[in-house]
Design a protein that fits this description.
The protein is mainly alpha-helical and 108 residues long. The protein contains seven helices and two strands; from the N terminus they run ββααααααα. Helices cover 59% and strands 4% of the residues.
């Protein structure tokens, strides 16, 4: 289900800001993408962390309904608030554990 925006919303490359934020926040459900963000030092950037904090609006039901995988996406938003997690996500072992947890959760 695509989000429809009022006609007055500006477009960025043909997409609304909400559509771009939705696509980005959903990418956080991928542990390897979180690893990439950590390795590339995005998770050390205060501006980037402020943006992650801003994206917490997706926890609200009117926005969470647009998430394809709300559980892993919202969990990633919470984990990214933790300094320890941001430091440890560069570890392939942690990525593997997160993937394993996700597989276990999806088979229940």
């Amino acid at each position: 289900m695509a989000a429809s925006a009022p006609a007055a919303d500006p477009l960025y490359g043909g997409f609304t800001r909400f559509e771009l934020e939705l696509e980005f926040v959903q990418s956080l459900a991928n542990p390897w993408y979180l690893n990439h963000l950590g390795v590339q030092k995005y998770l050390d950037n205060p501006d980037f962390l402020a943006y992650i904090d801003y994206l917490h609006y997706f926890r609200q039901p009117q926005y969470a309904r647009f998430l394809t995988h709300p559980g892993p996406t919202l969990r990633a938003l919470e984990l990214l608030q933790q300094d320890r997690f941001r430091k440890e996500i560069i570890s392939p072992e942690l990525v593997g554990r997160l993937i394993e947890e996700g597989v276990k959760a999806s088979t229940k």
